[in-house]
Design a protein that fits this description.
With 194 residues, this protein is an alpha+beta fold. The protein contains 3 helices and 9 strands, in the order αααβββββββββ. 26% of the residues lie in helices and 39% in strands.
Length: 194
């Protein structure tokens, strides 16, 4: 039986093999094909490396997106270790906590290190689209690693003291300084005092 990680990587490779033709897609397809061949040949470690490289090529071709975004009861301590909030209703004094897992960002090579460099803007609007406030560079996220890390997450916290009762939409816009890509996500919430 295939190891779950290798099975997932093989599925990504098969998806890549069905993609449209371009120079980058060709590179990804070649890596995926090589990975599948190595896996069939009983070389799982080499297969994993080739399939991981193919997944990285596909990642770089994707837009900046988000695998998961949600309101949470507490800040996550690690990737995927989240406690979703049962309700999107807040009392106006309790901090609002958000969790997001970005995808499709890039890395800047710096010697033997890879650097992720993301900044996050925040805006709040009413459900009818009326802007209520914003903050550029609400948060900056930088990490260096010897690997091109893809399992990245954000803990974002807001306090909306003095906001009147009502329904709102929080928008977070992420800027990837390595690739120039931008992506955003919205989360609805309600303020209800007492």
């Amino acid at each position: 039986m295939l190891h779950p990680i290798l099975f997932h990587a093989a599925a990504i490779a098969l998806t890549l093999a069905a993609g449209a033709a371009s120079a980058q897609t060709d590179d990804a397809q070649q890596l995926a094909t090589k990975g599948i061949e190595l896996l069939k040949a009983g070389q799982p470690e080499e297969a994993f490396k080739a399939l991981n490289d193919a997944a990285t090529e596909a990642w770089l071709q994707a837009p900046l997106g988000f695998r998961r975004t949600l309101l949470v009861a507490a800040a996550a301590q690690s990737y995927g270790a989240v406690s979703p909030r049962e309700s999107a209703v807040f009392d106006g004094a309790t901090p609002l906590r958000f969790y997001a897992e970005p995808t499709g960002f890039g890395w800047v090579a710096d010697g033997e290190l890879y650097r992720i460099d993301l900044s996050i803007d925040f805006s709040l609007r009413s459900t009818d689209g009326k802007p209520l406030g914003e903050q550029k560079d609400f948060q900056n996220f930088k990490i260096e690693s010897r690997e091109r890390v893809r399992e990245v997450y954000f803990n974002l916290t807001l306090t909306l003291n003095g906001a009147p009762d009502g329904h709102y939409i929080a928008t977070f816009t992420v800027h990837d300084h390595a690739t120039g890509k931008d992506g955003s996500f919205d989360l609805p919430l309600e303020i209800k005092h007492g």
